[in-house]
Structure formats: C-alpha cells, structure tokens
Design a protein that fits this description.
Number of helices: 14
InterPro entries: GH, GH_1_N_CS, Glyco_hydro_1
Structural class: alpha/beta
Largest sheet: 8 strands, parallel, barrel
Radius of gyration: 21 Å
Distance between the termini: 17 Å
CATH topology: TIM Barrel
Shape: globular
CATH class: Alpha Beta
EC number: 3.2.1.86
Strand content: 5-15%
Family: Belongs to the glycosyl hydrolase 1 family.
Protein name: 6-phospho-beta-glucosidase
Helix content: 25-40%
Number of domains: 1
CATH superfamily: Glycosidases
GO molecular function, one term: 6-phospho-beta-glucosidase activity
Strand order of the largest sheet: 1-2-3-4-5-7-11-12
Order of helices and strands: EHHEHHEHHEHHEEHHHEEEEHEHEEEH
Length: 470
C-alpha cells in the first residue's frame, strides 16, 4: 500500500506572468511582469517604466497558454494530473487594478480554462497574484507602499471568489510572499527611491500585503466555507556552514527571515523576533487599529511553498551566491545545476519537517523542479534523464517525510510542467517543463509542443500514486 493517500493532489504548476501571454488581448492591462525585459544567466533583467519600444519583454507572449490552453490541458490530462496550479492575472480582471468595473472578457477566459480543467477531472489550484500586480497600481499608489492597494486586492479577490466559487476550491494569496524582503520590484513592482529607507519601505509594504492576505482569507471563507486558502512561501531552508555556534545563529537568522511572513499568515500575529526587529532597525510600521484582529481572523488553512534547493549560512565574511533570489554560501556536499542551484533532495525532507513541526498545518509543495538546457534531437525528441532523476530523489524524500516523520502533505505540483519564462532572468533556455515549447531567448520559434521523456515518467508516477519511481 502506498504511503501517499489516494486523494493526493499530483499535478503541475505554472503562472500567468511566465506562461499565459496575450498581454494586451482580451482587455488585459499591463502588469509588473510585462515591464521586465529579457535577461540571461547571472544578469538581472531591467524593470522599465511601462513598455519601451525596441525592447524585448518575454512575458508578452511567454509560451502562449492564452491561445493554446485547450491543447495544453489535454496534454496535462494525458499525464494523469489530479490538479493544475496556476495564477489569475490581476490586470486581466482589473486592467489598472482599481477600476469600479471588472473586465468580463478576462473573467470569461478563466471560466473557460477552469471548465476545461474540470472536464478532465483536474482540480484548479489558483494563486490570486503571482508577481503580476497591475502596473497601474504602481503608477498611482506605489503598489503596496499604500494601504489603498489593500482595498484593490480585496475587491479583486471578492470578484474572483464569487465568480469561481463552484469551480475552484484551492487558493493561495501571494506567490512566494517572503521574496518581498529580497526583490520588492519583482514581487509587487515596488521601487526603492533615492533617500528612502529600504527596510522601512519593504516591511511597511509587507505589512500591507499581510493585511490584504488576511482580509482575503476571511472574505473567501465567508463566500464559500469549503474554500481551502493557503499562503505561499519560497522555502530554501538554511543550514549552518559548520557547528560553530556563530554559524548556527547565522542560519537561524536566515530562516527567521523566511518565517517572518509565514508566522503571520499561519499564526495570525507577528512573532516576538519580528517585533523586536522593528524596534532594533528603527522601523515605524503604520498599522491600523483593527489590523491585529484582521491578521488573527485571516490565518490560512494550509501552507503552499516552493522548494528547489537548500541554502547555507555562515558567520564568516565571505562572498555569497544567489539562489532563487536569496543570498547563500555554496554547499560543497551538493552537486549543482547549470545555474548554480545545489541539488538537495534530503533538504526537501528536512524542509517539510521544519514547516510541519512549526505550524502543524497541511503542506502543499506547489513548486519543485529542475531548470536545465534541454536539447531537441533530430528525431524530434527530448531526453531529460537529469530531470527525472531530480524528481525521483525528491519524491522519495517526500515519501519518507510522510511515512517516517508523519508530515501531512496534501499535494505535489511539478514546477514549469511545460516550458515557460524563467522568473529570475526572463530566459527560455532555462527549461523546467516536461513538455518542450519551441521558443528561444530572443522570442523566436513556432511554439510547437513536444513531449519529453520526463512526461512519460511522471505519468507512471501519478498512475501508481508515487510507488513506481523507476
């Protein structure tokens, strides 16, 4: 008998800003993601003021789910998906973010997508906003620098909760909300202006986001008590470099930065460490009188998270590397991907235990995957044993967490189940998918879909409920 329950949510994951395309079709407005240019390995993209002629913006077409959703969902069904995790593009529903009227054409698009998923018995798992705040809110209010954006987010959430209350059960509020501490521009479009205190801006905006999330959770439960609404955090999990006590403290502090957000969303209040940090850093966070009650009443039902790699912290003065937006020290015990991300399946088990022990809430791994340079062979195939090996090892460790450690895990969705744009650099050549899409870093290609070897492997994994990993 499998250690994984029969109702486990196997599936794949994507996001509107990296996959959907159709950036100016169907009444959609500009999002923050639409203002990021393409980049390449080890180079940040440029965040422009609107769209500048002559620059290439990969999200504008991405890999064009907007026009190919029926074909793609049929391919997902062919793998046996139980669920598909994606996001709704906020600016497809409210083009500027704060209109009184919603865009019906945008709402209908997601009706059509969800109907197509449900036709195949695939449960939609929906992130309310995934690095795609409407650019109009950045121009008018500075995004979540302003409490006005809280009201915009709640109004948007109410519209989609009511519209899809009979089609979507699983929701998450903000994708990888804790990356706000590292890249506020990508997370919400926030710019740190000359003369501004970076931490003050970040943590004030973070508070506004946490209040917005809590209000949405409470509202969602009122609209449909059967909704399951989670948070979503980026979870690298930091090890100390050595058993030196100062290294232990360095790792603890790195992990505390991750937990800052999940503590509030899961427990309903700021930790003592977070409050002390505000005092020590002389941060003056403006909070409304009712905010503490709102946070208490809006705690989440489950923890969605991404896991690609672990991190290492040290007390030494040493050069760090960047992995999924977070600074860390290289781990000499791990093999790295082409992009320098340490491959650590055992760290996945450790991460699962840390989260479950801390919160005692169900876990949902909504992102796990391997970015690599895939080759399309002359006979039209993609052989990706490295991706299969990555998933095999991580699923094995997930099973140990469930069987040996007693961790409650409700689902696993493979990130970039189909090739899409890298969030970190805007590249296409950093491919995650089990389905190849003919498109390159410059936007060339016919968008043809080609099944990779990993597609057939994952189909077998789902069919056997995780028992056959060979």
């Amino acid at each position: 008998m499998s250690v994984i329950p029969n109702n486990f949510l196997w599936g794949g994951a994507a996001a509107a800003n990296q996959y959907e395309g159709g950036y100016n079709e169907g009444g959609k407005g500009l999002s923050v993601a639409d203002c990021f240019t393409a980049g390449e390995k080890n180079r940040r993209r440029e965040y422009t003021d609107g769209v500048i002629e002559g620059k290439y913006y990969p999200s504008h077409i991405a890999t064009d789910f907007y026009h190919n959703y029926k074909e793609d969902i049929k391919l997902f069904a062919g793998m046996g998906y139980k669920c598909f995790r994606t996001s709704i593009a906020w600016s497809r529903i409210f083009p500027e973010g704060d209109e009184a009227e919603r865009n019906e054409e945008g709402l209908q698009f997601y009706d059509d997508v969800f109907d197509e998923l449900l036709k195949y018995g695939i449960e939609p798992v929906i992130t309310i906003t995934h690095y795609e705040v409407p650019y109009g809110l950045v121009k008018k209010y500075g995004s979540f620098k302003s409490r006005k954006t809280i009201d915009c987010f709640v109004r948007y959430s109410e519209v989609i909760f009511k519209r899809y209350k009979d089609k979507v059960k699983y929701w998450m509020t903000f994708n990888e909300i804790n990356t706000m501490a590292h890249d506020p521009a990508q997370q919400t479009g926030i710019r740190i202006l000359e003369g501004e205190n970076r931490k003050q801006v970040i943590y004030q905006a973070a508070h506004n986001m946490l209040v917005a999330s809590a209000k949405a959770v409470k509202l969602g439960h009122e609209i449909n008590p059967d909704f399951k609404i989670g948070c979503m955090i980026c979870m690298p999990m930091f090890y100390p470099e050595t058993c030196k006590p100062d290294d232990q403290i360095a790792a603890m502090q790195a992990n505390d930065e991750v937990y800052f957000f999940s503590d509030v969303q899961c427990r309903g209040y700021y930790s003592a460490k977070a409050k002390r940090m505000f005092v020590k850093e002389e941060l003056h966070i403006e909070m409304a009188e009712e905010d503490e009650q709102i946070l208490r009443e809006g705690s989440v039902d489950y923890i969605g998270f991404s896991y690609y790699m672990s991190g290492v912290s040290t007390s030494r003065e040493v050069e760090t590397v960047q992995g999924n937006m977070m600074k860390m020290v290289k781990n000499p015990y791990l093999v790295e991907s082409e992009w320098g991300w340490g491959i650590d399946p055992v760290g996945f088990r450790f991460c699962l235990n840390c989260l479950y022990d801390r919160y005692q809430l169900p876990l949902f791994c909504v992102e796990n995957g391997f970015g690599a340079h895939d080759e399309l062979t002359s006979d039209g195939k993609v052989h990706d044993p490295y991706r299969i090996d990555y998933y095999r090892q991580h699923i094995e460790e997930m099973k140990k967490a469930m069987d040996i450690d007693g961790v409650d895990i409700i689902g696993f969705t493979a990130w970039g189940c189909i090739d899409l744009i890298s969030a970190g650099s805007g590249e296409m050549k950093k491919r995650y998918g089990m389905i190849h899409v003919d498109r390159d870093n410059e936007g060339n290609g016919n968008l043809k879909r080609t099944i990779k070897d990993s597609y057939y492997w994952y189909k077998k994994v789902i069919a056997t409920n995780g028992e056959d990993l060979d």
